[in-house]
Structures are given as structure tokens and as C-alpha cells.
Write a structure and sequence with these properties.
Blueprint: H1 3-17, E1 26-28, E2 37-39, H2 42-49, H3 53-63, E3 70-76, E4 80-85, H4 87-90, E5 105-109, H5 124-139, E6 143-147, H6 155-167, H7 174-190, H8 192-206, H9 210-234, H10 253-262, E7 266-269, E8 272-281, E9 287-293, H11 301-315, E10 320-323, H12 330-342, E11 351-354, E12 360-361, H13 378-398, H14 407-427, E13 435-436, H15 439-442, H16 450-467, H17 483-493, H18 495-505, H19 508-528, H20 536-559
Parallel strand pairs: 5-6, 5-10, 10-11, 12-13
Antiparallel strand pairs: 1-2, 2-4, 3-4, 7-8, 8-9
Helix pairs in contact: 2-3, 5-18, 6-7, 6-8, 7-8, 10-11, 11-12, 13-14, 16-19, 16-20, 17-19, 17-20, 18-19, 19-20
């Protein structure tokens, strides 16, 4: 049920009837005494009309037709309209997300690790944020094309191939490859001759040298096997079929340059092929180039990203293309999108969006690293999370909170809680912000954390277990009576609207905040409204609300990529 859009539509119809210009600007009310929703657009509409906002608000209320939708309308402050929904209307809400009224083909570009080395914590945010948004879009009926644009091409492989040939080295171990790469990088930085030979190796590789391609493919297979293992452990919906590495665009790079030339966009500058656009200038007002081909004939990330767009828009027929790449690449994507528009690769019907994210920091407010200053390997981070979650559960066992959990269930729970805690700690933060990684905070059973939500879900399930009740026998809709029931039902009814917002704006923390609020309302309901000890219709009504809460918590955690436990 799209409550916000329905209310906005009715309020804006009243605006039109009264000859007012403006939008309803509807949002969930911040406090119960304000009702359930609040329309904040009246004051702007009144200002345009040169009228008193509170008087306009009253006229809007008089003109509104919210029969069977709202049970109370009131004016607050300088002209807000507070709306309290009717219980019968709230009861129509479904806990199963419905498809959007208009669906699109959406390409989601996320994860994108560089190969020939292990994934580290720097790859976590792109991977889990992109995965969450892809899941939400799919749930709402959009066609989602996942793209894992891995770094499988370029100078790093020239260095690795040259070094291993020079050393006569070979290995099927990713750890060995990473060590070889580290030594090769040192040689590349210090030895001009090695650097030149590495660059020639890249040219040979990109020209299709058979022997080099065989060795290169071996590197890719070893690296992607490592990545896929981590994706599966993290519960990420990426498969080998979603890999769309830089190498896959190699044959189209020249065609992309030719297309830019045909559009009259190329200018030679110091031997390089560049695109100059009016919107990119230095602080002194001098034109800044977007370089698409180096003076030695080599290509850049801008070239491969333009080739990406040719495929994603031309072949995939994308309506939206979303890039979950860190904030440091903001200028790069602005340039690529602008060149694509100027070249006719994209058009106004296609939405191209860079969805940036901040950095994971240590407690010293610097990028999260080991004590030795190295980037933390993602596999090691997950192992530590599970280890700490297992200890947490053992401590609770000692306290008598989990007395009958055996070793097998303990291990499963530790994996669910540990990995869920790491993911939720990240997803619950505004993606554009940096955040401090804190083990104690993320593994707490108090506050906006995965353990708290997992416990809230298990509490809903335990009610049915203790009562010996099959939740599938309960009615799908019930009309709330008591205020804690009503507040819980309103939160459940807003789930569809929330998912639509997340799908459009790409902020998983909005989903986390919603689930946290829902769990809090359920706790208040649980404490204030006896469930199993109630009688007849009251018991059925409260059990139905409990089931709905559990269903939404489970679905919401699934969209975040977090598993649930039936008991904790």
C-alpha cells in the first residue's frame, strides 16, 4: 500500500481545487501526538498565494476527501497538516512488498574488486550496499542486471606477468600471487627497465598474445574463486555470470574512440585524445580535458566506462544505471556521464547515478587498518566477527539466556550474528558518511544493531512456539484497537512506501532505521499488550500483529542480506 503517494495525491488535488500551486511534501510524523503523517507543503503553497498558512491549511482540510483513509486531521504550528489514519485503512496493508506501479530495467554496478589479490575491507561497502539496493529493486518488480566490474586488465597484470616470467615462478595460491604482485610493484617503482617491459607486456596481453592470455586467465580464475567464496559467506547475490570486467570491453575501446571522433568531440592535446566540455574548468576558468586515449595509444578508465555505457544502454536497454563506487570517484563519473550525454551514448530517458559512499575508519579516525598499517583482509574480518559473536553467545549462556543451545546451533548462530553485525553496522550508517568501526557497538544487543533486530525477530517466533500456535492459521488482516497495536500497525503499513524510497534514493540506512523503529514499537506493544494470556478476538488480533511484525523484520533483514534465527 503506497500511503504517502495516496495522501499526497489527495492533498495536491485539494491544492488544485483551491487554485494553489505546490506539493504536499508528506513525511511520517516524528511523534505520536502529531498523528501518523504530516503534510509540510501548505506553507509554501500559501506563501506563493500570499495567504495565511493556517487559514490555507484549514481550507485544504475542508476540501480533502479522505473518507475511510483518515480518522483525524488537525493543524499544527504555522500550517502543518497532521493526519491520523483510520484503523480499517491501516488493516489493508500487506506485509509482502508489492511491485511498483512502474518498473524499469536497472543496471547495478557494485563490488568491483581488483584481481590478483585478496579482497579487503575497502571492498565491503560497495559490495553490501550495492547488493542491498539490487535486492530492494528486484523485490519491487524491477529488472535488475548486476554488474561486477572487476579490475582484471591493465598495468598490474603486465607487472605480474613480467615478474613471474623473470623469476620462473608459478602458483595456484592467491596468497602467492599477492606476494608476487607486491614484489613486482616494488620493482616497477624502482626499475625503469622492468617498468618498460611491464608496459610492453600489457600491450602484448591486450593484443591477444596466446601464452599471456592463458597465464592471465589462470590469475583470474584463482582470484574469482576467492571472491566467490567471500560473496557466498557474506550472502551476496553475485555469481560468475555477473562478472563484467575491464577486459570484456577491450574490443570496443577503439570503437568508442571512433564514435567520439565521429561526433566531433576529440581534440589532440600533448599527443593524447581529449574531450573538452564547458562544464569542466579549472579554478582559473581554463578548460579541463577528459582524456580518453593516452599519447602512447593506451586507454583509461574513462574509456572503458564509456564502453560500459554503450553496452548497458545500447544492449541491456537500461532505464537506470547505478554505480556504487566510493566518493573519491565523483569527478570521474561526472565527466563520464557528461561525455556520454554529449556523444549521444546516453540520453535524457536514461538515469545515470553515481551513488558514492564514505570510508570505514578505525577508532583513530583513520582508514581501518591492521596494527602493522596494512589493509584488513575481508576474510580475516569475517572470521574475527564470528569468533566474537560465538564468545558473546557463550557469555549469554553463562548468564542463563541461552541455556539449551548445542554446539552446532551455537556455530550457526555465531555465523549469522557475526556476519550480520558487520554488515548491519555499515548499512545502518548514511552511505555518504565515513564511520568508525566498533566491535563492541556492532555486537551489542541494545540499540540499532543486527543482534537487537535478530533478537526482536526471534521474540516474535518464540511467542508462537510457547503458545503452540501455527502462525499460518491467523487472519491476514486485523483492525487494531489499543494504541500500542495501532502504532505497530501503522509502522507495518508504511513498509511499502519505505522500500520505494530506498529503491529511488539508494540509502540502505533508511531501511535499517525503519526496522529499528518497527522493533521498538513491537517491544512497546509486547510490554503493554498481553498476547498469549489475552482472550478470543483480542488474542487473535495481537497474534496476527506479531506475525506481521516478524514477517516484515525477516523480509527487511533479507533485503539487507542478513539471515535470521528462529530463536536466540
Amino acid at each position: 500500500m503506497h500511503i504517502r503517494s495516496l495522501l499526497s495525491e489527495r492533498i495536491e488535488a485539494a491544492f488544485a481545487h483551491l487554485g494553489l500551486e505546490g506539493q504536499a511534501l508528506l513525511q511520517a510524523a516524528s511523534r505520536p501526538e502529531f498523528g501518523d503523517y504530516q503534510a509540510n507543503g501548505v506553507m509554501a503553497a500559501a506563501k506563493r498565494a500570499g495567504q495565511n498558512p493556517r487559514e490555507v491549511a484549514q481550507r485544504v482540510i475542508d476540501a480533502l476527501d479522505l473518507t475511510d483513509i483518515a480518522e483525524d486531521l488537525s493543524i499544527a504550528g504555522p500550517g502543518f497538516i497532521n493526519i491520523t489514519l483510520a484503523p480499517q485503512f491501516i488493516a489493508q496493508a500487506s506485509t509482502t512488498p508489492k511491485h511498483s506501479a512502474e518498473t524499469h530495467c536497472v543496471v547495478v554496478d557494485y563490488s568491483g574488486p581488483n584481481l590478483a589479490k585478496e579482497m579487503h575491507v575497502g571492498h565491503l561497502r560497495s559490495t553490501i550496499i550495492g547488493d542491498c539496493i539490487a535486492r530492494v529493486l528486484e523485490t519491487l518488480g524491477h529488472k535488475v542486471i548486476r554488474q561486477n566490474h572487476v579490475g582484471d586488465w591493465g598495468t598490474q597484470f603486465g607487472m605480474l606477468l613480467t615478474f613471474m616470467a623473470e623469476q620462473g615462478a608459478a602458483s595456484d595460491s592467491l596468497a602467492d600471487l599477492e606476494n608476487f604482485y607486491r614484489e613486482a610493484k616494488q620493482r616497477f617503482d624502482d626499475d625503469d627497465d622492468f617498468q618498460e617491459r611491464s608496459r610492453r607486456a600489457v600491450v602484448q596481453l591486450q593484443s591477444g598474445d596466446a601464452d599471456m592470455l592463458v597465464q592471465w586467465q589462470k590469475f583470474i580464475d584463482i582470484s574469482m574463486s576467492h571472491c566467490q567464496g567471500l560473496y557466498e559467506r557474506l550472502g551476496i547475490d553475485l555469481t560468475p555470470a555477473d562478472i563484467d570486467g575491464e577486459s570484456s570491453y577491450n574490443d570496443d575501446l577503439k570503437n568508442t574512440i571512433d564514435h567520439l571522433a565521429e561526433q566531433g568531440l576529440l581534440t589532440e592535446s600533448d599527443g593524447a585524445q581529449c574531450v573538452f566540455l564547458d562544464e569542466f574548468k579549472s579554478k582559473k576558468g581554463e578548460p579541463q580535458p577528459v582524456i580518453v586515449q593516452k599519447s602512447d595509444g593506451g586507454y583509461l578508465y574513462s574509456t572503458s566506462d564509456l564502453a560500459c555505457l554503450r553496452r548497458r544502454i545500447g544492449d541491456f536497454k537500461a532505464d537506470r544505471v547505478l554505480y556504487f563506487v566510493d566518493a573519491r570517484q565523483a569527478l570521474h563519473f561526472k565527466q563520464v556521464f557528461a561525455v556520454a550525454a554529449a556523444a549521444g551514448i546516453s540520453n535524457s530517458a536514461v538515469e545515470l547515478v553515481h551513488m558514492p559512499f564514505g570510508t570505514m575508519l578505525g577508532k583513530d579516525n583513520k582508514p581501518f587498518k591492521t596494527r602493522q598499517g596494512a589493509l584488513v583482509k575481508l576474510a580475516d574480518l569475517l572470521d574475527e566477527a564470528v569468533k566474537r559473536a560465538e564468545q558473546l553467545l557463550k557469555d549469554r549462556d553463562v548468564q542463563g539466556k541461552n541455556p539449551d543451545i548445542d554446539d552446532a546451533e551455537l556455530a550457526t548462530l555465531a555465523e549469522t550474528i557475526g556476519i550480520g553485525a558487520v554488515k548491519y553496522a555499515d548499512l545502518s550508517k548514511n552511505r555518504t558518511s565515513d564511520y568508525v568501526f566498533d566491535w563492541d557497538q556492532m555486537l551489542s544487543f541494545d540499540g540499532n544493531t543486527a543482534p537487537y533486530l535478530l533478537y526482536a525477530y526471534s521474540r516474535t517466533r518464540s511467542i508462537f512456539s510457547r503458545g503452540g500456535i501455527d502462525p499460518n492459521t491467523l487472519p491476514e488482516t486485523v483492525v487494531s484497537v489499543d494504541e500500542p497495536e495501532r502504532r505497530l500497525a501503522v509502522a507495518i503499513a508504511g513498509y511499502q512506501d519505505l522500500l520505494e524510497l530506498v529503491a529511488q534514493e539508494g540509502y540502505p540506512h533508511q531501511l535499517c532505521a525503519y526496522l529499528y523503529d518497527l522493533a521498538g514499537r513491537f517491544t512497546q506493544f509486547y510490554e503493554q499488550c498481553p498476547i498469549l494470556s489475552s482472550e478470543d478476538d483480542t488474542k487473535i488480533r495481537r497474534l496476527a500483529l506479531t506475525k506481521q511484525t516478524g514477517d516484515v523484520l525477516s523480509n527487511g533483514l533479507h533485503l539487507l542480506g542478513i539471515g535470521v534465527a528462529e530463536r536466540m
